[in-house]
Task: structure prediction
Amino acid sequence: MRPEALNPLFAEVQTLEGVGPKLLKPLERLGLARVKDVAYHLPERFVSRRAIADLDDGNEGEQVIVALTPVEHRSPRAGSRGPYRVLAQDSAGNICALTWFGKAAYTAKKLLPVGERRWIAGRLDRYGDMLQIVHPDHIEVESAANMGRLSEPVYGLSEGLTQPRIADFAAQALARLPELPEWIEPGQLERAGWPTWRDALRLAHESTDEKARDRLAYDELLANSLALLLVKAEGRRKRGQALVGDGSLRAKLQLPFALTGAQKRSIAEIEGDMTQEAPMLRLLQGDVGAGKTVVALEAMLIAVEAGKQAALLAPTEILARQHFETLRKMAAPTGAEIALLTGRAKGRERESILMGLLDGSIDILVGTHAIFQDTVSYRDLALVVIDEQHRFGVAQRLALAGKGRRAPHTLAMTATPIPRSLTLAQYGEMDVSRLDELPPGRQAIDTRVIPQERMDEVVEGLARHLAGGQQAYWVCPMVRDSEVADIAAAEARYAALKERFGDDVVLVHGQLRPEIKDANMERFASGQAKLLVATTVIEVGVDVPAATLMVIEQAERFGLAQLHQLRGRVGRGAEKSVCLLLRGGELSETGRARLALMRETQDGFRIAEEDLELRGGGELLGTRQSGEAAFNVASLDQVQRLLPAAHADARLLMERDGGLTSERGEAARLLLYLFERDWGVQLLRGG
Ligand code: ADP
Ligand code: MG
Result:
């Protein structure tokens, strides 16, 4: 049971004034379900705006406040997915387009009647030879003096939300913060000169106060370390099953290739762990294409040989299906029974899978998180494999998987090479196997950096590539931190490419209905469609060896780890592969160096280490988009600076008060709940 003191924070967002049913979806997309999520939705940055008399005064890229009078509304042509534009005029007669993508056009219609002057705040940009402001932050009837501060927070948004709205919700959430007892070790608090938790949150919404932000980050790191230590302590208490396979099934595998040395070594390490009674807790790190799947299969066959069951958890429906197909083919000669369970299995089909799991006729289950629902029971689950585990939060899964009397062995797999200095933060104290050797015969991917202006040539090159019978990916740009705009960009690019290449093109992005997304993926995977246009949803795992060209727009906006993963989609077959990184106009020194590094090496571990160096501080440790986020509050720089202290703090607390029953222990429980590491607390209760 959650401590009562936290109830105001865990109240649903609907309890904030002004949050009606219409805003639930947009808030949900930002991960804001509860009041505390809103309080922790910290400004991404602060902007200073300048009030300008007319547009001639403003500079491109500048945040301005200007009075404009709408003269014309332009809807997109019927059926087209173009933006909604309102043309507006300043006092000097200059015209500026106010532009909206998607459903946000509704706002424009209401707030910008033709002929009535309004004060507009936003970023002045150029579109062709017209000035424009995309999704203005404020539209007011009153003069600029009443538009609030000239410096204001900028929050991450999703479609349907505006800056003033979210700022209002944040203010309401902050007003509800309870006073909580201190969980940070007093000496640490004093040395660092940090504010209390409540003050820190309030300060972080008002300014870039470093102490406040550090404190909040430390809280998160402390919660994470504590939870991992609790899981570890629990693991030591709980017995697993020692599994010894007789090799009979593995001997029947007819792999079309010989295992690499790294694969053999990893399998031996896993097999060694599984023969122990203590549950295995192992991470298999291996670059995209390093061959993790077959390692997972061997591990699962060991469990089956020992008369037990194994489950493989994938982060997405697409990946679950792909794993299922691959494993079923590979394992066919062994006679092991493999089934697929996802959220979409219904009725009879689902019933029969559940029966099969219970009576043991299914040996291996592949699926999405549906395989861990309460209604799913196994006869004897002894091994859990978690693919692309960074999407889940490994410790949480471990805790879930450990629900039974006997803890299953766990193998987590990730293609995100993580710098050594961050492994502890992300994975706690797991054992690690590294697939640091690619299967033989892989060709280097020819990587080139090309200015975006040479788009025409790129499309011509693409045309030749497709005409030659090969397939290609086209990854669309990330726009201004907004998923809405990302999708708008992808749809616009798709429309343009479709005009040129017709039905050979399919589109995949996160907002498509799952059936459509799968059908499009399937058309591409089967070779019917030649070109896949996508946002970053193809990032993880998809395997289409015939695709040998990858185009990535505005490559400088992607994280290097993410570029590396994207690039790993090609170079999977025998053909020579090419990756074109299109870059926008002005690149910083670092931006240049980062893209140069991509050109220079394909070693994911090296890219991860050097990216960390290049990025230095400030940048978030993976955004939600890139899926590598382990922390919501702590930045990469903060993780590096603060983790050692937080980890030591957590250890000390566990040594003194492993049951978290002292006054500070009780406060630490609040912290665990606050950061939703309460599975840690639940482990405590179980014991
Ligand atoms: P990932 O580590 O990204 O999950 P996969 O397991 O999907 O990689 O393997 C990528 C491709 O390499 C697959 O087509 C797989 O069959 C092939 N492969 C795996 N191991 C070897 C090997 N030892 N020799 C040759 N090809 C291999
Ligand atoms: Mg894989």
